[in-house]
Write a structure and sequence with these properties.
Strand content of chain B: 15-25%
Structural class of chain B: alpha/beta
Order of helices and strands of chain A: HHEHHHEHEEEHEHEHHH
Number of strands of chain A: 7
Structural class of chain A: alpha/beta
CATH architecture of chain A: 3-Layer(aba) Sandwich
Number of domains of chain B: 2
Largest sheet of chain B: 7 strands, mixed
CATH topology of the largest domain in chain B: Rossmann fold
Helix content of chain A: 40-55%
Distance between the termini of chain B: 43 Å
CATH class of the largest domain in chain B: Alpha Beta
CATH class of chain A: Alpha Beta
Largest sheet of chain A: 5 strands, parallel
Strand content of chain A: 5-15%
Number of strands of chain B: 14
Number of helices of chain A: 11
Strand order of the largest sheet of chain B: 3-2-4-5-7-6-12
CATH topology of chain A: Rossmann fold
Radius of gyration of chain B: 19 Å
CATH architecture of the largest domain in chain B: 3-Layer(aba) Sandwich
Number of domains of chain A: 1
Distance between the termini of chain A: 61 Å
CATH superfamily of the largest domain in chain B: Thiamin diphosphate (ThDP)-binding fold, Pyr/PP domains
Largest interface: A-B, 48 and 51 residues
Oligomer: heterodimer
CATH superfamily of chain A: Thiamin diphosphate (ThDP)-binding fold, Pyr/PP domains
Strand order of the largest sheet of chain A: 1-2-3-7-6
Chain lengths: 324, 325
């Protein structure tokens, strides 16, 4: 089948989705216990998008993420211990505790990075693609973003320039139906946001965002086009946000019945059903147990790590020749 | 030595850096086929091609964000924002993106881009095309801001800015483009960011300025000389980082300071200069620092009205006399 991942790739996506789910659950609990700082934006139920969309990329390719980026980080191969330590503000965190859960980056993995200004990752990836085009380095830039950010002006500016200059950028819309507390029906004039991308002459596809295999196949077609110099692509992945906007969300605006319906279509279960015939339940269950234990260990290690010590930043000082 | 216009000096700097480093590219509105509305990029499209000299749509917000991320991924973008008055459109990319990443990502990324723009009044361009918004960018830790006045400094600082590993906001002035000055094209002519220049030495009062205000300060010094007052004119050249050493050394000599900035007074760049002097040179002062700025109001269009709000030599000379009174 064209653009189908290998079974090994599918198993790896399954493993990463489980890892991500365990991270979300663990930090949900730690947050309730008051052991984290600030809000945490969970992506339970949306893992198939970030993990399916990034599975065909290399470390040389770039992605930009959002405030809800854990699946994107994990999909791009960023180390879960480093992520966890960063979320916990530890010295050993990927960014030494300077960034926090919304702004994690790992340049060595091409993940640059989380971005909590809604929409800002979209022109960022477009600029990376511009760099790629000028350097002729064959790299692709991808931006994962939500339906909320699709209402910004920079979304349109970026689509236009990406199409105009045939930039090697892939736009992956993780449509989870909510921009903070307001449903997408009350934020946008089009049901399918990809219609707007199509109006710029960008090829688009709409897929089931809870099916990692479907996400992979649609996105990899766009990645290949972009890599060949044929310009941007846009994949709209329909999914749903199970948890609230963040751990500080009081809730009350999402219909419990709708949430229950979406939970029946758990992306991990969908992936399991797709794989079980090929690899068997025993192996998949073993992967689940091993991965869950790995995540638990990583978070426990991170919890035991020290907090960073403060040092003033000298290169941002206002005066030359001397520090603050 | 060649006698060059300011715009020509910038053009030469761009050509020199693009020739030296293939990762340098230019983009912005009307910079390609037309060569820029102030002709700074004239001839560069023909020389370097449309990949590296790119006319863009009118999309300042995304363009600035793209400069930041392109710089993070191996190129050295030089973005032209046609008027400083459009900087508010660039601000998210500057305030929330460019200024934070090197620090929050633990020095694993750098962003060597230059944002060139021009501001300032005196050309009858009205309230949306005449402002000096220096303070909007100079306020932000993580950005560097330079504003040269001579063609030699324009070339030298632009070359230094393009080579610098960190973001530089390069402020030009619409009334400077046609001014001529000596430029030594036989030397690299690099000018270090963060170093002030003594335009003329003096003993009675120090006048600190940047960009076109340096020219007004020089004229003020001539007026003051007629009254027997010896003014030292310092061209700060760099608004951030600021050459505090040069400021302190000058005030130690004159014990009086006038700060000049074409932006607004309240919370303005001149206010910061004044506070900096208070913090670091208070003991050397014989009188309060005098500020010469735009009054806190929109810039009007008509010649008589616009001239009334802009700082000029007479206002600077009056401020110097006030601090000496």
């Amino acid at each position: 089948m064209k653009n189908a991942p290998s079974i090994d790739d599918q198993v790896e996506m399954y493993r990463k989705m489980i890892a991500c789910r365990r991270v979300e659950e663990a930090f949900g609990t730690l947050s309730k216990e008051g052991r984290t700082r600030g809000p945490i934006h969970r992506c339970d139920g949306q893992e198939a998008v970030g993990i399916g969309a990034t599975a065909m990329l290399t470390d040389e390719d770039y992605i930009t993420s959002t405030h809800r980026g854990h699946a994107h980080y994990i999909g791009k191969g960023v180390d879960i211990y480093g992520i966890s330590a960063e979320i916990l503000g530890r010295k050993t965190g990927l960014c030494g505790g300077r960034a926090g859960h919304m702004l994690i980056a790992d340049p060595a993995k091409g993940m640059i990075g989380g971005n909590a200004i809604v929409g800002a990752g979209i022109p960022a990836a477009t600029g990376m693609a511009l760099s790629n085009q000028i350097l002729k380095n064959g790299r692709v830039a991808m931006t994962l973003f939500g339906d909320g950010s699709s209402q910004t002006g920079i979304w349109h500016e970026s689509m236009n320039m990406a199409a105009l200059w045939k930039l090697p950028v892939v736009f992956v819309l993780e449509h989870n139906e909510y921009g903070l507390t307001v449903h997408s029906d009350r934020q946008g004039s089009t049901k399918d946001i990809s219609e707007r991308a199509a109006s710029y002459g960008i090829p688009t596809e709409i897929v089931d965002g809870n099916d990692a295999l479907a996400v992979y196949r649609a996105v990899s077609t766009m990645v290949e086009r972009a890599r060949r110099g044929e310009g941007p692509g846009f994949v709209e992945c329909k999914t749903y946000r199970w948890e609230g906007f963040s751990t500080s969300d009081m809730g009350g605006y999402q219909d419990p019945e709708v949430i229950a319906e979406w939970k029946k279509r758990d992306p991990i279960k969908i992936a399991y059903d797709q794989l079980v015939g090929e690899v068997g339940a025993e192996k998949l269950d073993q992967i689940e147990r091993d991965t869950s234990a790995d995540v638990r260990d990583a978070i426990e290690r991170a919890l035991a790590d020290p907090l960073p010590e403060f040092e003033i930043c000298n290169y941002t000082a206002p005066y030359s020749g001397e520090v603050h | 030595m060649a006698k060059l216009r300011y715009a020509e000096a910038l053009n030469i700097a761009l050509r020199e850096e693009m020739t030296r480093d293939p990762s340098v590219f230019l983009f912005g509105e009307d910079i390609g086929t037309y060569g820029g509305v102030f002709k700074v990029s004239k001839g560069l499209l023909e020389e370097f091609g449309d990949q590296r000299v790119r006319d863009t749509p009118i999309s300042e917000q995304a363009l600035t964000a793209m400069a930041v991320s392109a710089a993070m991924t191996g190129t050295r973008p030089v973005l032209e924002i046609m008027y400083a008055d459009f900087l508010p459109l660039s601000l998210d990319a500057l305030v929330n993106q460019a200024s934070i990443y090197e620090y929050i990502w633990k020095e694993k990324v750098q962003m060597p881009f230059v944002l060139r723009t021009q501001g300032g009044g005196g050309a009858g361009a009205g309230a949306q095309h005449s402002k000096a918004l220096d303070v909007l960018v100079a306020h932000i830790p993580g950005l560097q801001v330079v504003a040269p006045v001579t063609p030699a400094d324009a070339r030298g600082l632009l070359k230094a800015a393009i080579r610098d590993p960190r973001p530089v906001i390069f402020l030009e002035h619409k009334l400077l483009y046609n001014m001529r000055g000596e430029v030594d094209l036989d030397s690299e002519g690099l000018v270090e960011i963060g170093k002030a220049r003594t335009v003329q030495p003096g003993t009675d009062v120090s006048i600190f300025a940047t960009s076109k205000m340096v020219i007004d300060a020089e004229k003020a010094a001539e007026l003051l000389a007629k009254d027997g007052i010896s003014a030292e004119v310092i061209d700060l050249r760099s608004l951030r980082p600021l050459d505090l050493g040069a400021i302190k050394a000058s005030i130690a000599k004159t014990n009086h300071a006038v700060v000049v900035n074409e932006g607004w007074r309240f919370c303005g760049y001149a206010a910061e200069l004044s506070a900096t002097i208070m913090d670091h040179a208070f003991d050397e002062l014989d009188a309060p620092v005098e500020r010469v700025t735009l009054p806190d109001m929109p810039i009007p269009y008509s010649e008589t009205l616009e001239a009334s709000v802009l700082p000029n030599a007479e206002k600077i000379a009056a401020a110097a006399k006030k601090t000496l009174a």
